[in-house]
Write a structure and sequence with these properties.
single chain, alpha/beta, Rossmann fold, 8-stranded mixed beta sheet, 9 helices, disordered N terminus
Length: 285
């Protein structure tokens, strides 16, 4: 404990001569390492994973502008659903925001990432409010094929073709579930980062989406989603349910979009709701 305290408090001069905090990083072997995020949480990472973990190790954060918005959409006592939790970067912040009276249910199909996420949840003391489920979410229940990669684990997705993630792509079989088939709490926010499977996930959550004040935060990537569905049909499906759309900007603001915008939008993160969301304070410790 004394060694850890010294590491947490150690500072070194930066290029400008000012003192800068030195975040600890502990290499625990080829399979696992531990680092501290800028927000203060400790998180277990895969030292060979380049799509997300390398950023967490080097910078202590990932998608900072989107994270601020996501955390600003929830309050203490809320119930949150995540699909595509990776190693738990968003999960930790959400667990802190919802508090002991709220809950976070996170789906992560990649068994390696799900295991790392569970360890981070335990270490930060959030076992009482977080459940990590190693399942893939889609519109049809049953065993499905899922592509994973050690090097680019952030790109894991429902199988499309062999080698989709590079030379180390592995296709595994995982349990697929529909959100509407599960016994889940009254969800306030659904956060989805599923590499193009967002339309399938939402099609399997039609009953859940009937909640008038539900908020979605989803990755929007036309190229990826077109490998799953006809996009004009999916956009009409969302519009028919009276959803409105906002793009998350680099300054953590919500820029309104029209239905026509969605068909040509570059990859980004969207907030989808039936009325303008009110953003609270997204910053955590």
């Amino acid at each position: 404990m004394k060694l850890l305290s010294r590491l947490l408090g150690r500072r070194r001069p930066n290029a400008g001569g000012q003192a800068a905090a030195m975040r600890p990083y502990f290499y625990l072997g080829e399979e696992i390492a531990l680092t501290r995020l800028k927000c203060g949480h400790f998180i277990y990472v895969d030292p060979r994973e380049e799509s997300v973990c390398s950023h967490l190790i080097a910078h202590g954060e990932w998608e900072a502008s989107t994270r601020r918005v996501v955390l600003g959409l929830v309050n203490a006592g809320d119930h949150v659903l995540e699909v595509g939790g990776h190693v738990g970067y968003y999960t930790l912040g959400l667990a802190q925001k919802v508090g002991s009276k709220g809950s976070v249910t996170t789906f992560e199909a990649n068994p390696r990432l799900a295991a790392l996420s569970r360890r981070s949840i335990r270490m930060n003391g959030y076992n009482d409010r977080v459940e990590i489920r190693q399942q893939a979410v889609t519109d049809v229940a049953g065993d499905i094929r899922f592509s994973v990669s050690r090097q680019f684990a952030g790109g894991g997705h429902l199988y499309v073709w062999d080698g989709a993630l590079g030379a180390d792509t592995e296709v595994i079989e995982v349990e697929g579930v529909r959100l509407d088939d599960l016994d889940l709490p009254d969800v306030k926010l659904i956060r989805i980062d599923a590499e193009g499977s967002e339309p399938l996930i939402l099609r399997g959550a039609e009953k859940m989406l009937q909640r008038h004040d539900i908020i979605l935060c989803i990755e929007w990537d036309l190229v990826q989603m077109r490998s799953r569905v006809q996009m004009d049909t999916f956009i009409s499906w969302l519009a028919d349910r009276d959803f409105l759309f906002w793009k998350i900007t680099g300054s953590s603001e919500l820029a309104p979009l029209t239905i026509a915008d969605l068909a040509t939008l570059p990859p980004c993160d969207l907030v989808v709701a039936r009325k303008q969301p009110v953003l609270g304070v997204g910053k955590t410790r």
